[in-house]
Every structure is written in C-alpha cells, then in structure tokens.
Amino acid sequence: MKGMLAEFDRYQPQNSMLPAAWQGPLQRHAVAGDRRLRQLAFHLSPAAHDLWNFLLTEEDRLHAARRQGQFLVGAMKDLGTVPILVNALPQATAFYPDGAWWLPCFKTRQTQLLEVADAQGATEGFCPVRAMLGAFALQCHFPMPDLLTCSTGATCDDFKALAQRLVERGHAIEYWEIPHMRTAEPGEAACTLASGHRVPAVLVDVIEAELVRLWQELQQRTGAECALKELQQAIARSNRIRDLLRTILSSGLPALEQLICAMMALHYCSDYAMCEAVLTRVAAEAAATAQPQQGVPLYWINPVADVRVMNVLEEVGGRLAGSDFMFAHALDRLDETVSPLRALACMAADDPMAGPVEVRMRRAVADAHRVGAKGIVVSRIPGASHCPYESVCVKQLSDFPVVEIEVDSLVDAYAPSLTTRLQAFVEMCAS
After folding, report:
1. CA distance 28 to 44
2. What average pLDDT does this structure show over 338-355?
3. Section 152-181 average pLDDT
4. Rounded to an integer, what distance in angstroms lies between the CA atom of residue 380 and that of residue 384?
5. 10 Å Cβ neighbour count for 44?
6. Which residues of 241-273 are buried (b: 16+ CB within 10 A; e: fewer)?
C-alpha cells in the first residue's frame, strides 16, 4: 500500500526508533526545501516513516556531532570501507559527501549546486556527483569534515577529476589506493573474495597496507588508541546491518524504500546504532506484513539520480526483484575469521567498480537469475564514464530482455517518454 506525503505522515509511529528531535512529519522537510517529497509515493507503514526521517535528518545529526566535538570524516568514493574504520573510533563520525548527488533531486534544483559546479569546470559532461563540488563551495548542506579520505587508483574517472578540483580549492585529501581488480592467473597466489571472484593475493596485500596506513592516520588525527578488537567489533556491527539489508531487499519492499535501505550500506547514514535499530524495525515489519508480490519482476542496474523513477517502475506494472546499485561488495558479509584490516582489504578488492565491467555485469546477471527476474533495466547515469558498456555486456552475457534508460537529477521534462519506454518494456517482459 502506497500513498503521497500527506497520507504517509499519518503513519508516524507512536513508538519511533528515533530520538524525539529527529521525529515528526516529513512535511516539515518538504517545507524546508526537500520539495521532491511531494511527488513521491511512499510505502505506508510506521517503519518506512522512521526510515525516511532517519535519512532526511542526517545533516542535522552531522551538525549535532560537530557541536559535540566529534571528529568528522568525509569518506569519498570508497563505497563503504572507511566508515567501518571510523566506526571503531569512539570520537569520530563518518559521512559520505558523494551523497550530495541526490540534493538536486530532493531540492528540485532550487539550490545552486550544479551551477557552482559548472563555474568550476565540472559541467554536464560529468556525472551528477559533480553536485558535491557545489556543496563544498557553498558549505550549507553538511559541516566541513575534519578529514577527507578518497579511494583512488581503479576508480571512476569523473570522481578523480572532482577530487582533484577539491584539492585545488583548498580541501586536503588523504588518498588510499585500490588497484585494478583482475582475475588471478594460473599458479598465482590468490584470494577468493565474498563474490567468489579469485584475485591475486598481492592485490589484497596492497590494499591492506593502504588501510593500515589510513587506520594509523585516523588514530593519530583523533587522538584515539584503539586495539584491533575495536575494529573487529565494528566489522561485527557492519555484518549485522548487512544481514538486515539482505533480508529487507528480498522482502518485497517497494522499490523506492529498497533503494533508500540499500544506500544505508555505504556509511549507515552516519549513525551505526540508529541505522541498525531502524533497519531492524523495517525488517520485522516487512516479515510481519508480507503479501504476495505483484508486478513483473525486474532487475535494476545503477542507482538513479532522481528517486521518483523508482515509483514509475511500479506505476507501469514492474517490481524491483533485485539490483546492482554499484556497491554489491558493501552488502556481502565481511570475513570475521581473519584480521579486521585484511577483511576490509578483501571487501575493497571486491568493489565491482574497481574491475572490468564484464566482471560486474556477470555477477549482476547471475543475481538476476537468482531472483527470478524477467528482464533487466540499465539506468545510465549522465556523464558517467562506465555507463556506455553495461547494457552491451548484459546482452552479451545473457538472454535477458534489456532496456537502457538515462536518468538525470530531475526527469520531469521527459517523464512521459520515460514512462512509455518502461511500460512497453514491462509489457514485453510479461508476455
């Protein structure tokens, strides 16, 4: 059951998992500038209401953390690794500046983020994550971090350029390298990752050495002296959240809420404990209210810059049965039987964006088969360097029907044609 914002606000839970300061109607966020909320159809449930309030109060929590003297780490591009390191440090909080790419959507481009990025040379030829440049320049959407980290090496070309621009603008960055992921050669010492991919052991060794250096830097900068047992505990907490997410993402939750939940895997919305509490409620409610799943099951590749498109999928008769939102490695369980830094190195080595697109698409196709998808939607991200090859690979690796769409920060101008294409695809997959 789904409804628009006014109806959704009637589902405010009486026993919210959130502190009182973060509770309340979502209408207040729409009034404060998140205008896109008025065009979204929400899953009508108390747990979903807590989930959205948790997402939309992250900026407030980060400012509160700053006032409380927390050391703020902006973890860029690593897609889930550094926040686990930071979570082991009692006086530090990690957040994900890259998430600014959703601001033009939620604010319906009423900010100047993209215009500022344009002025700094990051024009429409770049991925929408260029909005991050505007957020750093305007300094009005999140507190400036005490430390910026960024994975480099085998990573998005667009993001490398944006990170370099931040350095030019005076933001120092602690880089750490992820080498290009490749399959181990016959006879070469190898490691088998959570995805099942076998990579050279030396690749994991290099990443582990980088994480050791970064772990030492974080402790020095925060004044903490943490034993590896604290990091092991952070990994165990992360695994609990990953377990919850796997349950939620297979529960039949509507597509929009699936997307929001999945994004929690990256940095836990800056609050591990609250993230676990909110997702525990979502998982329990999904299990208690499970209904026969309706709609044509489709697999979705790449996150959308405009979240409204996830509603459109269901409006035309589709159902999100599975997804690859570019961070499958952040949903796999971490190995708790090896040293924590080794476990994190294996996770980073499994980053699907750090290897050939064929490897990533092969995993996506296998996942689509597992969930019983009838077709695959490839959502191209405007300007992103990896996107021209994904649908080609899927077609080469499988017999799935494939449709390729492009989703900008706001799809309003071309929503009718996008809806028609998705509707025709759903009808074809259903026949």
Report:
1. 18
2. 95
3. 88
4. 8
5. 16
6. bbebbebbbebbbbbbbbbbbbbbbbbbbbbbe
The candidate with the shortest Cα–Cα distance to 318, out of 305, 335, 301, 300, is 300
Q: pTM score, two decimals?
A: 0.96
Give the residue among 274, 361, 342, 260 at the shortest CA–CA distance from 81.
342
Pick from 417, 347, 423, 360: nearest CA to 390? 360
DSSP three-state, residue 16: coil
> Among 322, 420, 329, which residue's Cα sits nearest to residue 376?
322
Write out pLDDT tens, residues 374-423.
999 999 988 776 667 899 999 999 999 999 999 999 999 999 999 999 99
Residue type, 280: T
Sign of CA dihedral 252, 255, 261, 262: positive
**Count of residues in the chain:** 431
> How many whole angstroms separate alpha carbon 282 and alpha carbon 294?
20
Give the helix ranges, DSSP H, for 289-335.
308-315
- The secondary element (H helix, E strand) that includes residue 406 is strand 402-406
- How far is CA 400 from its chain centroid? 25
Instruction: Compute the distance between CA of residue 282 and CA of residue 277 in angstroms, rounded to an integer.
Output: 9
